[in-house]
Amino acid sequence: MKNLWNKIKYSLIVIFWLLCICSIAVLLGASIINHQNLSFKSIKVNIDESNGMLFLSKYDVINLLKDDQINIDDSKSLDEVNYRKLEQRIENNPYVENAELFVDASGNIQINIKQRTPILRVINNKGVSYYIDEHARKMPLSSKFTTRIPVATGKINASSKNENTNDSVTIKKLFVLASFINRDPFLTSLTEQIIVNNQNEMEIIPRIGNHTILIGDTSNLDEKFKKLKVFYKEIATLGRWNEYSQINLKYANEVYCNKKEVSQNNIGITAKSNNLNTGVTQKTISTTNTN
Q1: Is 228 helix (H, G, I), strand (E, B) or coil?
Q2: How many domains does the chain have?
Q3: Three-class SS of residue 270?
Q4: Are 167 and 228 in the same domain?
């Protein structure tokens, strides 16, 4: 009797699972048929603007698809839409980092877009201007939106054959410096312009004061900017923002400063070297200003 009950119990379990599998198959088949016959209602574009970039609008994206002659209308069923082609079309836009498409339960095509983030604007010696993004990739300027980031100028030589092709070594150095600045809120707010001087060294024009900051090469940036922050803290305390024409961070453990001179009858008044007690040796070099 017990064996008979076990056989019946086993048969019932098998039948139960067979019914579950059949039900799932029926529902899945109905869902597929319904999806094939369902026409989408609209395109909804979601653009991530958390990085502050406003290069694209939802109308730009919709027009982008129209320009590619991809006919998206209410009569087309969802299974006829080539979603990967749409993604690739959007991602070909120079301001798009990534695009994802999916269909929601209401039959709307949802497009999620992440914009690229430029960290530096470059103007080469031919006057050609473009952005460098956070992945060291070149991107064009936009007529619709201008982001407030440092501008690099100076000895950035364009190729004689192609004005859009620059010295890759210089661009790599600029990217290293711009990336470091971009990761530091203080340096980001401080830096207005980066200049590549005739010695191929990097100089920064800050938004405060009337001086330049000589970085030299892009080695030991952490140490160099630590010295700068200490030095700035000291001269802010002493109210000396406008005493210097250049702050030189090139050398280890020292900050060299070119101090402006007050001229009288074209005779320079030499300022003595001093130590501002910044934790690093600070030396002042006077320069004559006869204006």
Answers
A1: helix
A2: 2
A3: coil
A4: yes
Q: Is residue 38 in a domain?
A: no
For residue 38, CA distances in Å to 24, 108, 129 come to: 20, 10, 47
- Please check whether residues 181 and 166 belong to one and the same domain: yes
First vs last Cα of the chain: how many Å apart?
116
Range 126-135 burial, b when 16+ CB lie within 10 A, else e: eeeebbbbbe
DSSP H or E run through 260: strand 254-260
Question: Which tokens hold the place of 231?
Answer: 């030095």
What value does the mean pLDDT take over residues 187-204? 96
The rounded Cα 284 to chain-centroid distance in angstroms is 37
For the segment 231-271, what is each residue's pLDDT rounded down to a tens digit?
988 887 777 777 889 999 998 888 888 887 654 443 332 33
How many angstroms separate the CA atoms of 45 and 61, rounded?
8
What is the three-class DSSP state of 233? Answer: helix
CA distance 122 to 99: 27
**Hunting for tokens 């198959």 — which residue is that?**
25
| Structural domain span for residue 201 | 118-287
> Are residue 281 and residue 160 in the same domain, yes or no?
yes
Tokens of 41: 């209602």
Q: What's this model's pTM, rounded to 2 decimal places?
A: 0.75
